[in-house]
Amino acid sequence: MAGSLRIEPLSRDEIDSIYEKCVHVLSTYGVKVDHDDALTRLAAAGALVDADTGHVRFSRELIEEALKAAPREVVAKGGDERHDLPLPHPDGSFYTSTCIQSMLYHDPESGSFVDVTKESFAEWCRLVEVLPNIDACAIQTPMDVPAETADVHALNIQLQNTSKPLNILAYCLETVPYFYELLLARAGSEEALRERPLVFIDPTSLSPLVYKAMDLETILYSIRYGVPVAPSSLVLAGGTGPSTLAGAALLVAVEVLAMVVMTQLLEPGHPTIACAYNYTLDLATGNALMGCPETLLAQAAAAQFMKEGLGLPVLTSSLQTDSYVSDGQTMVSKSLQPTMCCMAGADIIYGAGRLGGSTLASPVQLVIDDRLVEIERRCIAGVTVDDDTLAVEEILGAGAGGHYIKRRHTVRHCREAVRPDLFVAEPLDMWQAGGGKDLYERAVERYRELRDGLEPLDLPDDTRHEMDAIVRRADEALVP
Prior knowledge:
It contains 18 helices and 22 strands. The chain has helices at about 10-30, 35-45, 60-70, 120-130, 150-160, 175-185, 190-195, 215-225, 245-265, 295-310, 330-345, 365-380, 385-390, 390-400, 410-415, 430-435, 440-450, 460-480, and strands spanning about 30-35, 50, 55, 75, 85, 95-100, 105, 115, 135-140, 165-170, 200, 205, 210, 230-235, 235, 275, 280, 290, 315, 350, 355, 360. The strands form six sheets. A five-stranded mixed beta sheet has the order 2-3-1-13-12. A five-stranded parallel beta sheet has the order 6-20-19-16-14. A four-stranded mixed beta sheet has the order 8-7-22-21. It folds into two domains: about 70-380, TIM Barrel, CATH 3.20.20.480; about 385-415, no CATH class. The chain is an alpha/beta fold.
C-alpha cells in the first residue's frame, strides 16, 4: 500500500523493554538540571528535586501522565501557510531540514572551504525558499559577526530571507531572550506568534544526562510563547554514550524523554518533536562518524522507539555524510541513512546541504539533496495496488504482442514517474553532446541559475528595522 513502506529495527518486546529501562533510569537516578527556576517549577509539578545537586527524578506516574499530555500531532509553521508541516506527514512520507550550526561553506566557484558569512547565509536561506523538496531552514553560524551574538544575527537573517519553518537553537543562555524578541517582531504580536510560531527550537542534552541552563531557558520561553520544542540528544556512542547500538539508542531515548516530561509537566499539551542527533565515536581517530552503519542503525532504532514507544513526531539527523566533497561516499550516506530512518518512523530528516560531518555546508550539495529527497520520497511511498493500477483490462486489451504507448491508461499515469532533472536519463550520444557532465557539474549549473534569481522576503520596512535594532541591542549588551 502506498505510503506504508516500513522497517522495524526493534520488535514490540524490545520497544517495551527500552521503555521500561527509560522509566527505571529516570525514576531511580534521574537527570541533572542546571536551572534554579526550572527546578522550582518541576518540584511544584511533582518531580523529585534535590535543589542542592540539581538532580531531578520522575516517578512512573509522572512520566506516563506527561506522555499522555504530549500531542501526537504537531504542525511546524513558518511565515507562510503554504509551507506548514503537519506531523506526522499526512501521506506517510517525510519532511526535510537543512544542516544546523555550520561554520564552513564550500564555495562553488573557488572549490575552497571558507567561513560562513552573513551574505552567504542569506543566500542559503533564499535558496531554501525556492527548492521544492527542502521544507525547513536550520540556523547556521556567520563568522563575520561577534561570536557572542552569532545566533541572534543568524536568526535575523533567516527571518528576513525565507518563509519556511526555521529549525533553530540558541548558542548561549544570554541570547535566548533576543530570539523571542526577534520572533515577536517578525510575527507582529504575541497572539500572532502563538498562531504562527515561525520556528521549532532545539533544547539539547549535554550527554550524558545533563541539561544546561540555556536549554531549560529555551523550554521556558517556548512555553511562554507557544513555540514548538524539539528536544534533542547528542549521544556520541563510545564517548558520551554506550558503544553498543542498543545502549546508544537507549540513552537517546532517556535524554529525549526527560525533556519531553519536563516540557509537559511545565505546560501540558505543549507541541513537542522528539529528536535523535546521535553519532558514533571512531576510537581510532577520535572523529564523530555521521554516515557509518552504526550511526544509521542506532538512529533508526531511536526513531522507531520514539514514534512507537513514546507516540511522538520524530526528527533524525540522518541526511549526513562524513565526506568533505559531493562524491560517491556522500551519495551512499545520503541515500541509505535517511531512507532507513524514515522507514523506521522519522517524520523529519535533518542535514540537507551538509558535507564533512558537523561543520560544513555546501549550496551545491543542497541542490543535489533537494533532488535526492524526491527520489527517496517516491521509494518510501511504496506501491499502490488497486483495480486501476493492476491494469488487468489494459493487459487484456493490448493482448499478446501489443503495446501500451497510446492507451489512455498510459497517458493517465505517465506523468507520475519521478524525473529529477539533475540525474541523467538520456541516451549516451545525447549526454556526450551536452558535454558529458557529471552530477556535480550539473548541480553547479543549476545552483548558478537559481542564485541569479534569489531575493529576500518582501517584509515591511518597519519590521526589518525593528529586527535589525534588536540585533544591535544584543551586540551592545553581550559583546565586550
